[in-house]
Amino acid sequence: MDMLANKIKTTQQSVNSAMNPLDALDRPIRLTARDVTVHYGAKQALHGISIDIPDRAVTSFIGPSGCGKSTFLRCINRMNDTIEGAKVGGTIKLDGEDIYDPSLDVVELRARIGMVFQKPNPFPKSIYDNVAYGPKIHGLARSKADLDEIVVSSLRKAGLFEEVKDRLNEPGTGLSGGQQQRLCIARAIAVGPEVILMDEPCSALDPIATAIIEELIDELRENYTIVIVTHSMQQAARVSQKTAFFHLGNLIEEGATEDIFTNPVNKQTQDYIMGRIG
Amino acid sequence: MDSLVVAGLLIVLLGLSYQTGWSRSRALATTAGVKIHSRPQYHGALLAIWTLVPALIILGAWAWVGPGITHDFIVSQIPADTLANLDQVGLNTTISRISAIASGYGVAGEIQPFEQAGGNALRSFQLISFLLVIGAAALAGGAALFYARGRISARLRARNTVERIINLVLLACSAVAILTTVGIVASLVTEAFRFFTFINPLHFFFGTVWAPNNAPTGSNYGSYGLLPLLAGTLMITAIAMLVAVPVGLMAAIYLSQYAHRRLRAVAKPIIEILAGIPTIVFGFFALVTVGPFLRDTGRLVGLSINATSALTAGVVMGIMIIPFVSSLSDDILNQVPRSLRDGAYGLGATKSETIRNVMLPAALPGIVGAFLLAVSRAIGETMIVVLAAGNSPVLRGNPFEPVATITVSIVNQLTGDTDFTGPQSLVGFALGLTLFVITLCLNVFALFIVRRFREQYE
Question: What residues contact B272, with CB distance under 8 A and at least 6 apart?
C-alpha cells in the first residue's frame, strides 16, 4: 500500500509540477451532476450520481468493469440518446445550463463537449478530412485557408502534426493505433470544445503510445476540462487531479486524486485500490 | 411397391449395421478394459457405410443396366417372323404393349397371342430379376457387414475414416454445383459455336436488325443482329435501377437508422415479401395496371407513351428489385461499426450528416456490390419483359416505345417446335452465352470494387 502510494506520489510529482493536485478542487466548477440515473430498459445502470467536475483539470472515473463509469461519461454529452431503450434521470448542468433541457440543441452540446472513444475510430477518409469534418459541419471555417489552419493547429495540439504532415491526404485508417487515437483527439479538438470526454482512450494501445497520450492529456488540461474513464489506476494517478470511484452503478467516493489513492475513506475504495475487487 | 421394398431393405441394413458397430465397439471397451480409439457412434457409422455401399452399388448397377436387359428380354419374346416385319416404330409399339400387359393395365385393341405370352413371361421375368437383385444387394450388404464387423478393434481408427468420408461427401456435393456450371457453360459455348457456323459472328454482335426468318427457305435464315436486343435490355435495366436504387437505398437507410425497433420488425419482413412475389405476377401487374396508368398519365402531360414499353417494364422491374437492394444495403449499413457512428455523433454531427458523410462512405463497397448484383438480376429478368415491354426488336432510343430484350428473344426463339438444327433455335444459345458473359463481367467487376474499397477502408 505504502509502496503504491509512494510510486503514485513520485509519478504525480513529475507530471503535475504545474499544479498542486489539491488546487483542482478549488478551481471553478464546470459541470455539475445531481442524482443522475440511467436505465437500460428494465435494468438500472446508474443509481443517483452526484459529482462536480472542475474547470481545466483532469477528472478520472475509475472502477471495475460494468460499474457505470462509461455510462455516466456518455450522459455528459448525451451519447446515451443514441442507444435505444436508454433513459436518463436527474440533472447535469454545464455552466449552470441543464443539458437535458428539451430546448437544448444536442448537436451544439456535442460540439461543446467533445468525445474520444475507447477504440480509435477514424472515419474512412483522409487524415485531413478526419480533422476537417467537425469544423465543416459546424461551419467554423470561412475559407479553405481557415480550415487548413484549424486542421494544422488541431493536429499540432494533438502532437500528431510532425508525424503526418507529409501525408495529410492518406487515409486516417492507415495510421498506427496510437496515431489513430491522437487523430481522434485532434478531430475532437478541431471543433473547439470546452470539455473533452475520454472513454478509456488508451485501452487499445501499447505502453509507449499510452505514455504519449497521457503526456498529451496533461498538456491539454491547460485549455480544456477533461474527464477520463480508465481501467488503470496508475493512469488515473498519473494524469488526473480529481478521481471518482464507481462501483455497481454507484459513486462510492470522489476527491483529490492524491487523497483517493493515499487515504481513501471508503472501505470499497480501499479494497479496489489495493486490488481486492475488480 | 418396389421402391418401398428397396427403401425397407436399405433402412434395415442401416439400422442393423449401425447397431452392430455401436454395440460391438462398446463391448470391446467394457470387456477388454482398454481405451478404444473411436467412440461407438463412429464405429456404428463406419459399419453402416461399409454395409450400405456394396448394397447401393448393386442396386445402382441394376438401375443402370436393368432397362437394357429388360428391353432385350422383351424383344426375345417376340416371334422371329413377326419381328422381321416390324419397323422401329412398330417395334417400340409392340414393346410398350407387352410392358403394359405385364403391368396389368391392359391395352387397347385386340391382344395377339404372342403379346399375351410375352406379357406373362415379362411379368415373371421382372419378379425374378427384382428378387434376385434385392437378394444380391442384401447378400452383399450382409457379407460386407460381416467382414467389417470382424475388423472392429480397439485400435481401429473409425473416427478418422468417417471424418474422411464426410469430407468426401461434402466435396462431391460442391463438385456437383461446379460441374453443373461447367457443363452449362460448355453446352452454351458449343451450341453457340454451331450457331456461328450459320451466321457470321460479326453480323450477330454488330448487326442492327433482328429479323429471324422462322420458316426458312433454302439458306435465307433472316438477320440476327444483337444490338436492338442489347439496347432494349440495357434501357430497361437502366430504368429499373433508376427506380430501385434510390428507393431501395433510402428505405434501407430509414429502416436501419431511423425506424423504431418495433416498426423495423414489421416493415422489414413486409418489404422482403415483395421479393417473394413471382415475377409473372409482377408482369401481369405491369401489363394490366402500370402500363395503362403510365399511358394515361403521359397523355395528360402530352407525352405519347405506349402501354407496353421499356418504361413500363423498367418501372415494374425496378419495383421488383427494391427489396433486393434495400435488404442488402440494410445489412451492409448495420455492419458499419458502431464506433464510427459514435465518432460522428460525438463531434456534434446530426443524424443525416452522420449517415451521408460517415455511414454511406464506409458502406459504399457493399452498396456498390448490392447495386451490381441487382443489375445482373435485372438483365436476366424475363417474365416482366415478356408481358410488358411490347416485344419490338427495333433499335431506338425512346423509352416510351416498345422494345425487346435478349431474354424475351430467347423465349420467342425456343418456344414451339424446335429441332436445334438451324440458326432459328440455335440463336438461343448464342444469346444465352451473351447474357452469361455480361452478368459474369458484372459480378467480377462487383467483386473487384468491393475488394478494392475494402482495402482502403480497413
Answer: B323, B327
Q: Report long-range pairs for B414-421 (Cβ below 8 Å, ≥24 apart).
A: B420/B191
Q: What is the helix (H) or strand (E) element at residue A177, kind and residue range?
A: helix A177-190
- Homologous superfamily (CATH) for B221-457: MetI-like (1.10.3720.10)
ipTM of the complex in this document: 0.83
Bridge partners of residue A39, in order along the sequence = A44, A87
- In this structure, the number of other CB atoms found within 10 A of the CB of residue B368 comes to 17
Nearest-by-CA chain A residue for B338 = A121
In this complex, do A114 and B346 lie within 8 Å of one another by their Cβ atoms? yes
Q: Which of A84, A115, A171 sits opposite B346 (nearest CB)?
A: A115
Query: Phi and psi of B225, rounded to 5°?
Result: -85, 130
Q: What is the DSSP string of B271-305?
A: HHHHHHS-HHHHHHHIIIIIHHHHHHHHHHTT---
Q: Is B359 exposed, middle or buried (0-12, 13-18, 19+ CB in 10 A)?
A: buried
Identity of residue B169: V
**Preferred mutation among B347, B452, B457 to probe A, highest tally of A CBs within 10 A:** B347
User: What H or E segment, with its residue span, contains residue A155?
Assistant: helix A144-157
Sign of CA dihedral B78, B83, B85, B89: positive
Asked if residue A92 lies in contact with residue A75, where contact means CB atoms within 8 angstroms, the answer is: yes
Please tell me the class of the A1-102+232-278 domain: alpha beta
Q: Which of B348, B358, B458 is nearest residue A108 as measured by Cβ atoms?
A: B348
Q: Is the dihedral of CA A190, A195, A200, A206 positive or negative?
A: positive
Tell me if B148 sits within 8 A of B50, measured CB to CB. Answer: yes
- In this prediction the pTM is 0.72
Per-residue pLDDT tens digits of chain A, which is 278 residues long: 455 555 455 444 444 444 454 555 678 888 999 999 999 988 999 999 999 999 999 999 999 888 889 999 999 999 988 888 889 999 999 998 999 998 989 988 999 999 999 989 999 889 999 999 999 999 888 899 999 999 999 999 888 999 999 999 998 888 998 999 999 999 999 998 999 999 999 988 888 889 989 999 999 999 999 999 998 888 999 999 999 999 999 999 999 998 899 888 988 888 888 887 65
Q: Answer whether A125 touches B (CB < 8 Å).
A: yes
Length of chain B: 458
Cell of residue A251, nine digits: 459513486
A118: nearest CA partner in chain B: B339
Alpha helices in B104-157, H assignment, sequence order:
113-151
pLDDT digits (tens, 9 = 90+) for A34-62: 999 999 988 999 999 999 999 999 999 99
Cβ neighbours around A185 below 10 Å, total: 26
Q: Could you tell me the residue ranges of all domains in chain B? A: 2-156, 221-457
Contact A125 B361 (CB under 8 A): yes
